[in-house]
Structure formats: C-alpha cells, structure tokens
Give the backbone structure.
Amino acid sequence: MKRRSFTQSLLALPAAPALLGQEIPKIDFSVPDAGAEPVPHFFTAPQLAAVRRLSDLILPSINGTPGALEARAPEFLDFLLGQSPADRKALYRNGLDALNATARRQYAKGFADLDATQADALLAPLHKNWTWDAPTDPLAAFLREAKADVLAATVNSREWISVVSQRSRGASGTSIYWHPIE
Amino acid sequence: MATTPYDVLIIGSGASGGMTAHTLTKLGIKCLMLDAGPAFDYEKDRSLRAVYDLPYRGFGKPGRFPHITQASEFTAAIWADEKQNPYSYDPKDPYYWVRIRRIGGKTLVWGRASWRLSDLEFKAKDHDGFGDNWPIRYADLAPYYDRCEPLLRVSGRKEGLPQIPDGVFLEDNSPVGPAVARFIAEANKRGIPTTKQRRAQGTLASSMNLLLPDAMATGNLTIVPNAVVREITVDKKTGLVNGVNFVDRRSKRELHAKARVLVVGASTLESTRLLLNSGIANSSGMLGRYLFDQFYVKNTVQAITPETGGGTSYIPRFTNLKSKEKNYLRGYAVDFGGGGTPDPKYFPLYGEPLQKELNEHRGRGFNATTMGSVLPRYENYVRIDKTVVDAWAIPSLHIQARYTDNEFNMAKDAMNTLAELCDASGFQLLEKHDKMVPPGESIHELGTCRMGDNPKTSVLNQWNQAHDVKNLFVVDGSSFVNGGSQNPTLTITALAMRASEYMAEQMRKGDL
Ligand SMILES: Cc1cc2nc3c(=O)[nH]c(=O)nc-3n(C[C@H](O)[C@H](O)[C@H](O)COP(=O)(O)OP(=O)(O)OC[C@H]3O[C@@H](n4cnc5c(N)ncnc54)[C@H](O)[C@@H]3O)c2cc1C
C-alpha cells in the first residue's frame, strides 16, 4: 500500500471514542489445515514414504478413531523437523534412511512397501523395554523418538481430538495458554 | 516525576521479595519493589486453548528451551527467554537454570509443596560431621513457619515426625485407593514413614495473589515492573549501599533508584549474580560458593497396580536419622501416587496391541519420584562470565555443579527400596532407574550467598544481613547453608519474614 492511500485509510477509520461501547460481532476463524494441504519440505520422497508407513504402523486408525495418517502426523513431523536442531534432524534422516536401506537389502523394496511382518522385523527395537538412557544404536534411538512423536502428533491433532472428545470429556485437548507479553 | 524517598528497596517480587514486602509494609515501612518482569492480568492474559490450535501442536518451538524441561507450548511465554538470558557451564557438567521473569516470579507456577526443615538440616554438622551448621536452629524459625503456613494456606497432616516438624495446616484427610494404601502399609511395615503431601492450596498460590495485594493495601508499596537491576550502588563515604542502577526492560532506558535499606530477593542465583556484578559483600571470598540443590530421580519406579484407584502420598527422609547407617550421609524423600495411565513409552509395543494395552491399564499407573539431599560443597560454585551477557548487557554467570558418590549412592538406595516396595505391594514394575536429572532441573537451587556466624566463611549473618554491608539483606534461597530433601520455598518465606522483622526493628532503633 502506498503511503498516501495508507494515510487515507487511517483517516477513514471512525474516531476512537465512536468505537467504545459498540458491540463488535464475534467471528469464528479457521485454521490453515481446514482449507489446504501441507507441502512437505524436510523429508526426501523416500524418507516421507517411510515416515508415512512408520506412522501408520505406530498408530493406525482403530474402530473409527483417526490414526496418524488421518491426523497428518507425518506431514506435521516434516514441518517440525524442518525447524528442529541439527541433531534431531540427523536422527530422523539417518533413521529413515537406515529403514529404507535395510528394507532394500533384505527385501529389495523400500520400507513403505514392506508387509506388516517384514516391517515388524525391522522395528524390533520397539519391542525392547524402555530405559532411562537412550539406546546407543542410532536406529533404536530414532524409533524410540519417532514412536513418542507420532503418538503425540496424532493425539494432539484436531482430527483425533474431535472424535475422541465425543466419547470422553477428559479428552478435550484444551489447557490454559499464557499469552506472550511485550 | 519527583522521586519519593523509600525506606526499603526490594529487588524481586517472588516468594522472598513478596514476603519481605508483605511483612515490612504492614509495619509501616515504605517500600519500592523492582522486578525485571512485566506485570500482567491473570484473567485476561491467559485463556483456554486447544492444543491443535497452537502453532506446534503442543510440541513447542523446537530448541527454544533447551534447559527448561518444564516449559510447554501452553506456558512458553512465562519462562525467561534463554536467548535473552544466557549463561555458561562446562559442557561436561550441564546445569539447567530455570527462571521466570514476571511479577510473582516462580511462584506463578510452583508445585506448592511446603515442608519445614528440622534441626537435622539446621544443625546437620552436629549430626553427621559434614559441612557447616546454620547459624540458627529450628526453634528460631518455628514461629515464622507458624505464620507463613496460614498465609500460603498449606494443607497437610500432623504426624509428629521430628524430621518434618508439624505445622499450622488445613487438615488433609483425602483418601487413597487400595493400591496406594498397600504400598503405604508395606513401607510402614519396614519402618519407612509416610504422610500426606503438605501443599499450599488453590490453583494459584503465588506472591501475586497471597502477598502483594495485602502489601499494596497498606499504601506502603510501590511496584515497578520491567526494571532489570544491573548493579547495586554504594556510598563511597560510608561503604553502605544507597540504591540500584536498573534498565527498563523494553526501552533499555537507564535509571537509578535510592533507598535507606536494600533487600535482594531476585532468586538464588540471580541475587548472587547481582552482588558479584556489584563487587560487594564478598570480603570472605565465599560469594558464589557452596551451590547445591535437591537431586531428582524422576519416576524412579513406574509400575502397574492390580486395581484402579489413585491417591498420592509422601515418604519423608528416613535414613541416617539417629546414626550413620547407609553408604551415604543424610537422606531422600519420595513423592508417590497411583492412578492415570502409564506413558506409552513404557510398553514395548506399537500399533493396535499398544492401544489395547493402554486401555487395559487405564487408571492403574503408579510412580514415585525421589528427591535427595545434596551435600553443599565449596567446589560447586558460580562466578561472573564476562564473555556472556544478557539482552541488557549485564554479565551473566558461569555455573559449576556436579553430584558426587554421596548422591549417587543415595539414588541407588532409593531405587532399590522403591522397587522392593512395589514388588511387595503386588505391583508389576515397568521400569526402575537411578538416573538424576541435571543439577538445577529440580528448580531448588540453593546456597552461594550463605549465612553463618563467621564473616570469614559466610556472606550473611543469621538475619540474612550482609556481614560487610549492614544495610544490605539477601532473603532468598542463596542464604541456605544446607537444605535437606524438603522443597525450600516455605523456608525461604519464613526466613524473609524473620529478616524483615529484624530489619524493621533495627530501622526503628535508628541502627539502620
Ligand atoms: C515448576 C516449578 C515448580 C516448583 N515447585 C515447588 C514446590 O512444590 N515447592 C517449593 O518449595 N518450591 C517449588 N518451586 C521453587 C519455587 O518456585 C522457588 O523456590 C521460589 O519461587 C523462590 O522464590 P524467590 O523469591 O527466591 O524467586 P522467584 O520466585 O523466582 O522470584 C524472583 C523474582 O526476581 C526477579 N528478578 C530476577 N533478577 C532480577 C533483576 N536483576 N532485577 C530485578 N528483578 C529481578 C524475577 O523477575 C522474579 O520475579 C518450583 C518452581 C517451579 C518453576
């Protein structure tokens, strides 16, 4: 906007006192995902395929409750990882690459194309008990993080909450938010 | 605007500054309170939000709070920004310095657990020979605890246990479910005492609602938010402090405020930083030394109980009470409770089997967290690191803290004891561990400006008054000589109240 028209539009506003006491109608706004698809930026195509498959295995849709794919957890993780510190980026990239490489070596296809039994063999670290210290094996460390992230990204999604909150009052996903102060 | 002469200038509006203002203003003393954080409206500046409407779905902005594990995307705005407020440590010894800069300080979100110390702490050296005694005994502080507990609305149950003296409580008779009751019975059978948690009541139990409004009502308190104190100024002729230089947080305008007496309650490490940056009160060379806290082993045990039904309880320190009976000195306390569902990470499953397992165990979780006493050691310290400055060009701290075998042995003992109790109670143990969170993360940092009778080995006297500068008082956790396993804030408020009444009396007599 040119400076002149900006000044004009300011002048066009009603004087401040006129606004006071006036009833302003409330408008319900929406969120970007309601009318658009996320565009992945962080994962490569094979990584994204693997993270989608992994997410679906970790939390599939069960009895009408949306799973990770319906909640767009993989796309959300693509966004989150894109902004994350370098070590977390590397953990994910290397972990997904390792899943794909092992799948190719053992079954001559990408992780996304494995059947459930084949995939389960690669996800063996998820069948080990959780310990306070993170596993030293990079794939096991990645899978442990991915399990937690996929679950959280799903149960914190609008899709999941809108279904589950119908069944349980405690699952509204709301909490007190502290507003930033200048 | 003409400046009003103030009797007392208080730095910090949290537990310690709040209690100081509450006490002094009621005694008719005019106080000016400066706080680095903004004022805010508790109703309007908070609102109910859905997690999916937050930009990061509840994960928070990645990397924003590398040292504040307590921060969530909902509360991100209240924690001191780590980029604006940096500090340093040796990468081998990470320290998690958790701060809040807002009116009310950390009391805006504290867990409200409120325990008295006993002579096992005040006279610890007499008991086990390690370190130093406080210059006061329990009886000196008891009358102030008696008055602080009702102010903070502390609930609890009187048990007659000498290691956690009884107080003036709102009686807590809340029941516990059968599983927790069995755990309590197993503990008691082995001579391990248990009691209800002692906790300040109300969703908000902060200086902002419990202390500052009363102080304001006297007409004797002026609060200035957004005032980041840079240094304390000294009258060269008398050697007494005469005010502070501060910078307006938003505009970075520099100002000076004067007063007859100065009280520092900026929180343990901030207060010491301020004194070090001002080059005062350190003829002993002890300023910054003897940093300690409580070590935490979060979720030392995580188990599944056979039946649902929750309830929470507490094990106070029970080791080394009479004589040395363990491979460590002092002891630990435990917060434990049942109910809820264990975190999915504890189940070595994924997919539908994981969800089935979680459904089966809903309401049957049990966990216990260990809080252990840390020996105050000269080698654990803070100093000014001139290469690290905050957003207002104020030099920050280098922090050096490391736990030792005393703490490691204690943590191991806690883990084994709790695992044994779970087993005896018929619980299925999912995980046990003895790994402490890094020093600082318990948010119970103490020491570095400690009290003592000897000006050569301590910074403050028994009235929280600097040995070197008689009109300077430091009233927060930095004054602790040792701290036991009890959460420290109730003691901080009792000390602040005691110091304030002494201060008022000295002012009345014309000695200050
Ligand atoms: C999540 C959480 C849970 C906790 N749970 C418990 C518990 O259950 N029991 C317990 O006993 N304790 C608990 N604590 C610790 C408790 O909050 C602190 O011990 C207590 O608030 C310390 O009081 P204080 O006055 O020393 O510091 P604070 O309450 O932190 O107040 C210090 C104030 O000083 C101001 N300030 C700092 N530097 C400057 C400066 N340079 N200039 C001007 N102002 C400055 C800050 O803005 C702040 O408002 C918890 C803390 C947290 C964060």
About this structure: Residues 1-15 of chain A have pLDDT under 50 and may be disordered. Residues 86-107 of chain A form the longest helix (22 residues). The two ends of chain A are 27 Å apart (CA to CA). The interface with chain B takes residues 31, 57-60, 62, 76, 80, 83-85, 88, 123, 126-133, 144, 147-149, 151-153, 156-158, 161, 172-182 of chain A (CB under 8 Å).
